[in-house]
Write a structure and sequence with these properties.
mainly alpha, Hydantoin permease, globular, about 475 residues
C-alpha cells in the first residue's frame, strides 16, 4: 500500500534541512585547510566559480527530479528513465546514491562521534587540561581514544541513535523539526566564533589571505581541489538533494531555493575560514590534510585564547550540530528507498536501515586501531587507503559521488525533456530567465568539469 508522502511545512523548513545536509565537516574543516594550502583568495574565487557553474546546476537538477517524480533516488530514475534511451538501467544511478549514503554514513558517524567525546571532555573540564599539554592530548586521542574500539563503537552508536531518532519521526516531525532547532543554534555559535575571531591577533592577516587572490600561487591540483570541494560540499551526487526535493511543495521555487541553499553553504565555509585562519595566523599553527587535527592540534591552540575552555566547548558543539544535520540526510536517502520501493513503513525502514548502518559502522569504528585486521586491510592496494575506514572514504569521495553527479548531469541535460524541465522549474517560480544558461551548464559545463575530476582520479589524483 502506497503511503502518503511527507512534505516540508514550508519553504523555510526545506531550506534549513537542505542547507543542514550540505553543511558539515566539509565546510568547517576541509574547506579551510584546502583554502590554506592553496594560498587562500585564488582558491576561494575558483571555488565560488565552481559553485555557480557546477554546484548550482546539478543541485537544481536533483531537486527538479525529486519534486517531479515524488520518489526516492531509485524510484525517481526508474520512472524518469522508463521511456528514455537506456530504459530502467537509469535506476542504477539511484542505487548508486543509496549505496553512497549507506557507506558514507557508516564512517561519517564515527567521526561525528568524536565530537561527543570532546564535548563531554569540555564539560568535565578535562579538555583544557589535556590541551595545555600537546603531547598528552596527542597520546590521548591516538593511543587512548582511536585505538579503543569499544569506546569508538559507543560514540558511533550514540550518534547513529540520534540520527535514527530524527529520521524516525518523519519529514515534518523529525527532520524538519531538528533542522529548525539546530540550524539557528549552529548559525548563532558560528557568529559568536566569528566575532571572537575579530579580536585575535591574526584576524587582519586572515582577512587579507582569504580575500586577496594570487592566481600565480595556485597549480592545476589547486583548481581540481577547488572544483571538487564545491561539488562535495553541496552533498551532490548521492541523492540527498533529490530526496529532500521529493518532499518539496510545488508552490515553492526550485531556482530560488537552490541559490539560497548554495549561498548559505558558501557563507558558512567562508565564516569557517575566517575563524580558522585567524587562529592559524595568531599562533603560526601548522595544519595538514587530516580531520584528526581538529582533535589534536586545534584544542591546544584554542585553549590559549581568552576563555579558551568555553571556546573549545562551543567549537565542538558547532561541529556536532553540523555533523548531525548531515547524517540525518544520509539516513533519509537510504530510508526513503525502503519506504518507496520496498513499501516499508517509515518506522520499519528507519529502524532497519539505521540499525544495519550502525552495525556496519562498528567495523569502521574498530578500523582506527582497535582491530589490527580492520586497521591494516587494503583491498585497493593503495598506501593512502589503508584500513576499512580509509578504503570506504576513498571510494565514496573519488568514485561514488563524482560518478553519481556526472550521470545526473548527463541524464537531465541530454535525456530529460527540455519542456518537462522548463515546466518544473517554472512552477512555483514564474518565468525562469536563466533557463537557457542553466541548460547549457548542465549539458556541457557540469559534465566536462565533473568528468575531469573522474579522469584525474583515474590518472592517480585523489580527492580527500
Amino acid at each position: 500500500m502506497t503511503q502518503p508522502r511527507g512534505q516540508w511545512s514550508g519553504k523555510l523548513g526545506f531550506i534549513l534541512a537542505a542547507a543542514g545536509s550540505a553543511i558539515g565537516l566539509g565546510n568547517l574543516w576541509k574547506f579551510p585547510y584546502m583554502a590554506y594550502e592553496n594560498q587562500g583568495g585564488a582558491f576561494v574565487l575558483i571555488y565560488i566559480a565552481a559553485v555557480l557553474t557546477v554546484g548550482i546546476p546539478i543541485m537544481m537538477a536533483e531537486i527538479l527530479l525529486g519534486r517531479r517524480f515524488q520518489s526516492s533516488p531509485v524510484g525517481t530514475f526508474m520512472k524518469a528513465g522508463a521511456d528514455r534511451p537506456g530504459g530502467k538501467l537509469w535506476a542504477g544511478v539511484g542505487f548508486l546514491g543509496v549505496l553512497a549514503g549507506f557507506v558514507i554514513l557508516s564512517y561519517y558517524s564515527v567521526v561525528a562521534g568524536w565530537t561527543l567525546h570532546y564535548i563531554l571532555l569540555a564539560l568535565k573540564g578535562q579538555l583544557g587540561e589535556l590541551a595545555r599539554q600537546p603531547e598528552l592530548l596527542q597520546d590521548h586521542f591516538v593511543n587512548g581514544f582511536l585505538a579503543n574500539g569499544w569506546q569508538q563503537s559507543a560514540y558511533h552508536l550514540t550518534f547513529m541513535a540520534l540520527t535514527t531518532g530524527a529520521v524516525f519521526f518523519g519529514v515534518k516531525g523529525g527532520i524538519e523539526r531538528v533542522a529548525r532547532y539546530l540550524m539557528p543554534l549552529l548559525f548563532t555559535i558560528l557568529i559568536v566564533l566569528v566575532i571572537y575571531a575579530t579580536t585575535t591577533p591574526g584576524f587582519d592577516r586572515a582577512m587579507s589571505f582569504l580575500f586577496r587572490a594570487d592566481f600565480m600561487a595556485i597549480d592545476r591540483y589547486g583548481f581540481l581541489e577547488a572544483i571538487g570541494q564545491a561539488f562535495f560540499s553541496l552533498s551532490l551526487g548521492m541523492g540527498a538533494m533529490l530526496t529532500y526535493g521529493s518532499y518539496m511543495n510545488r508552490a515553492n521555487s526550485i531556482p530560488r531555493s537552490t541559490l539560497q541553499i548554495c549561498g548559505l553553504d558558501t557563507l558558512i565555509g567562508l565564516a569557517a575560514c575566517v575563524i580558522m585562519f585567524s587562529i592559524i595566523f595568531s599562533f603560526d599553527m601548522q595544519i595538514q590534510k587530516s580531520s584528526t587535527i581538529l582533535f589534536t592540534t586545534l584544542p591546544t591552540v584554542l585553549v590559549q585564547l581568552p576563555g579558551g575552555n568555553i571556546v573549545n566547548g562551543l567549537f565542538y558543539l558547532l561541529i556536532a550540530f553540523a555533523a548531525l544535520t548531515s547524517t540525518i540526510s544520509l539516513l533519509e536517502v537510504v530510508s526513503s528507498f525502503a519506504i518507496d520501493e520496498l513499501r516499508w513503513s517509515r518506522r520499519r525502514a528507519t529502524l532497519t536501515m539505521g540499525s544495519a548502518i550502525a552495525v556496519f559502522g562498528v567495523l569502521n569504528a574498530w578500523s582506527l586501531g582497535g582491530s589490527q585486521a580492520l586497521s591494516t586491510v587494503n583491498p585497493l592496494g593503495r598506501s593512502s587507503t589503508q584500513g576499512l575506514f580509509g578504503t570506504l572514504d576513498y571510494l565514496a569521495a573519488n568514485w561514488f559521488l563524482p560518478v553519481g553527479g556526472l550521470l545526473i548531469a548527463l541524464f537531465v541535460g541530454w535525456f530529460f525533456r527540455r519542456g518537462d524541465a522548463f515546466a518544473e522549474l517554472t512552477e512555483g517560480h514564474g518565468e525562469v530567465r536563466g533557463f537557457g544558461l542553466w541548460r547549457f551548464l548542465i549539458r556541457f559545463v557540469a559534465p566536462i568539469v565533473v568528468g575531469a575530476i573522474i579522469v584525474s582520479v583515474i590518472l592517480g589524483y585523489e580527492y580527500q
